[in-house]
Amino acid sequence: DRNEGENHLHGGIRGFDKALWQIASQGSDRVSFRLTSPAGDMGFPGALTALCSYRVEGLRLWIEMEATTTAPTMVNLAHHSYFNLGGPGAGDVLDHQLQLAATHYLPVDAAKLSTGAVLPVQGTAFDFTALRPIGERMPGPDGFDHCFCLAASLEPVAGVLLRHCATLCHPSNGRRLRIWTDQVGVQLYIAAHFDGSVPGKDGGRYGRFAGVALETQAFPDSPNRPQFPNTRLNPGEVYRHVMLADFIPL
Question: Is 80 a catalytic residue?
Fold first, then answer.
């Protein structure tokens, strides 16, 4: 499906974010949703059954995604929440301090498609190897919408093998969020398209740069880039993706 000019974005015009998921199971601290995407949906071969589970464990939010298919297909699911540690009505996130466990990133062309290159972040606006304000240096007026290649090794975190992805801090209230994942990349996006028309909490509106998305995932455009890690899922295999949002108390 072509839903962004000639390109395919977020699963197509009827991507999974627009689908009605069914509750598969639920409890006092967890819920799982199931979705079946029929063969040919948005141009993808195979019937895909996806499961997305959310679990709260103290100050930790676990997000786990699984999928199976009836025919070889491509799968790269991502969680697309926006975070603003200032709270509702706090304005933009350009003053938030961010650190990414990434020494390389994927440059994009004018259509925001990966060029296929993998470049070092050192000495560029993409260098978040140490905590710094998001808005301190940006590659252009729209800020960041780029994938970063995670460099940290997998390590046990609460019994699951994950790698450190990101640390996000609010400069004045001290709130801190850490992201862990088993994926190879994270897409950093700072909501440049918000224009004040998006309804928010307490009757507010979300303006430009009102939140930061840290989307753990495989590399974008992987089906067309043989040098990138493979995103093909075959029948009999299970796609798995774990993301942990770890909130550190004040």
Answer: yes
Burial 40-78 (b: 16+ CB within 10 A, else e): ebeebebbbebbbbeeeeeeebbbbbbbbbeeebbbbbb
Is residue 215 part of the annotated active site? The answer reads yes
Reported in sequence order, the residue ranges of 84-184 that DSSP labels E, i.e. its strands, are 97-100, 102-106, 119-120, 132-133, 145-150, 155-157, 160-169, 176-181
Catalytic residue selected from 57, 80, 155, 237: 80
CA 154 to chain centre: 18
User: Using CA atoms, how far apart are residues 38 and 189, in angstroms rounded to an integer?
Assistant: 30
Q: How many helices (H) and strands (E) does the chain have?
A: 0, 19
Residue-by-residue pLDDT tens, the chain, 250 positions: 999 999 999 999 999 999 999 999 999 999 999 999 999 999 999 999 999 999 999 999 999 999 999 999 999 999 999 999 998 888 999 999 999 999 999 999 999 999 999 999 999 999 999 999 999 999 999 999 999 999 999 999 989 999 999 999 999 999 999 999 999 999 999 999 999 998 988 888 999 999 999 999 999 999 999 999 999 999 999 999 999 999 987 6
Catalytic: which of 64, 146, 170, 215? 215
Quote the CA–CA distance of 120 and 1 in Å, as a whole number: 32
Helix (H, G, I), strand (E, B) or coil at 102: strand
HSE, CB side, 13 Å, CA atoms: give it for residue 129.
13
